[in-house]
Write a structure and sequence with these properties.
Elements (H helix, E strand, L loop, with lengths): L1 H9 L1 H20 L1 H29 L1 H23 L12 H4 L2 E11 L5 E6 L12 E3 L4 E8 L4 E8 L3 E7 L3 E6 L7 E5 L12 E4 L11 E9 L8 E6 L8 E7 L2 H13 L1
Antiparallel strand pairs: 1-2, 1-12, 2-5, 3-4, 3-12, 4-5, 6-7, 6-9, 7-8, 8-11, 9-10, 10-11
Helix pairs in contact: 2-3
Length: 276
C-alpha cells in the first residue's frame, strides 16, 4: 500500500492532468448543443474520410474487372450499331432475314503482346478457339482498325498488325467515296500509305479514310485515319498519299475481334465467278 501511495504521489501532476482533461471533455460535451454538434461533426468527418479512402482502394483493386464489364457492354453496343446500319429506315427490320441484321458480332479481348518496330508486326490476344475466335476475323480498337487474326490456339490468337508491309486493307476516302488500298511502308508506326488513287481525282488533306468492306474482313465504315500528305509527280499515274492513323499502336490494351457470319458465303460466290 505504501508503494501505491508513493507511486501516486510521484505522478500526481500527470494524474491530475488526465483527470482535468476528462472532466473538461465531459463538461464541454454536456454543456451546450453547439459544442456537442461540433464534436459529432468532427467524428462524422473523420469517419467519412476513412470510408472514402477505403472505397477508393476497393475501386482501384476492382478496376480490371470493371474494364472487362465495360468491354462486354461496348461489344454489345457495337453489334447493335452494326445491325442498325444494315437496317435502313426505308426497309423495315421485319423484311430482312436475321442473318443480315446480325452479320457482324464482336468479342472483347486484351492485348498481351505487341510489336511496332519491325517490318512485319504482330499482336497476341488472350482469346482463342474456345472463345469462338477464327482466322481472318477483323481486329479493331476504340479509335480504328488494328489488324486481322492470322492463327488461333485454344486460348490465344495472333494478329497481323496494320503495321505489316505485306498486309493490304481495302479502304475508301470520305466523303468522296474514292476507293483505295492501305499499305504500310515501315517508316512510322503513326502513318501509312494509300495506294491506287488515280491522279485525275480530287484529293484533299484532312479527308477521312475508312474501311470499304470489300475484302470481307473489316466491316464497312471503320475508321482508319486522315490524309496528312498529298503528292503527285508529273509522270505518276497515281497519287502518293500519306495517312495519319487514328490508332496509337504503341499503347493498345483492349481490342474487339469482329466476326462476319456471311464471310464464307461471299467468298464462295466470288470464287465461283472467278472460275467462270
Amino acid at each position: 500500500m505504501e508503494r501505491l501511495f508513493h507511486l501516486i504521489y510521484r505522478y500526481r501532476a500527470f494524474i491530475l492532468f488526465l483527470f482535468l482533461e476528462y472532466l473538461s471533455f465531459v463538461l464541454i460535451k454536456n454543456r451546450t448543443i453547439y459544442q456537442q454538434t461540433k464534436i459529432v461533426k468532427a467524428g462524422i468527418e473523420i469517419s467519412g474520410r476513412i470510408k472514402s479512402s477505403t472505397s477508393n482502394v476497393s475501386e482501384y483493386l476492382n478496376l480490371k474487372e470493371h474494364n472487362k464489364e465495360l468491354q462486354v457492354e461496348n461489344a454489345k453496343l457495337r453489334e447493335l450499331l452494326a445491325q442498325r446500319a444494315n437496317s435502313p429506315n426505308q426497309s423495315p427490320r421485319g423484311d430482312r432475314p436475321p442473318s443480315v441484321l446480325q452479320q457482324y458480332y464482336y468479342v472483347p479481348a486484351e492485348v498481351i503482346n505487341n510489336s511496332t518496330n519491325r517490318f512485319n508486326n504482330y499482336l497476341t490476344l488472350n482469346k482463342g478457339a474456345i472463345h469462338g475466335i477464327k482466322p481472318n476475323m477483323a481486329v479493331i480498337g476504340s479509335k480504328g482498325i488494328i489488324g486481322k487474326v492470322e492463327s488461333v490456339s485454344s486460348n490465344y490468337s495472333t494478329v497481323v498488325s496494320v503495321l505489316h508491309t505485306g498486309y493490304y486493307v481495302a479502304s475508301k476516302i470520305t466523303p468522296s467515296g474514292i476507293q483505295a488500298t492501305l499499305k504500310w511502308d515501315a517508316e512510322s508506326s503513326e502513318k501509312s500509305r494509300l495506294l491506287y488513287v488515280p491522279r485525275h481525282l480530287k484529293i484533299n488533306p484532312g479527308d477521312t479514310v475508312k474501311t470499304s468492306g470489300f475484302n470481307a474482313v473489316f466491316p464497312p465504315e471503320v475508321d482508319i485515319g486522315v490524309i496528312s500528305g498529298v503528292e503527285l509527280s508529273e509522270d505518276a499515274t497515281f497519287y502518293d498519299l500519306r495517312v495519319k492513323l487514328f490508332t496509337n499502336f504503341n499503347s493498345i490494351k483492349h481490342v474487339y475481334l469482329v466476326g462476319n457470319r456471311l464471310r464464307e458465303e461471299k467468298l464462295e460466290l466470288e470464287q465461283e465467278l472467278s472460275n467462270e
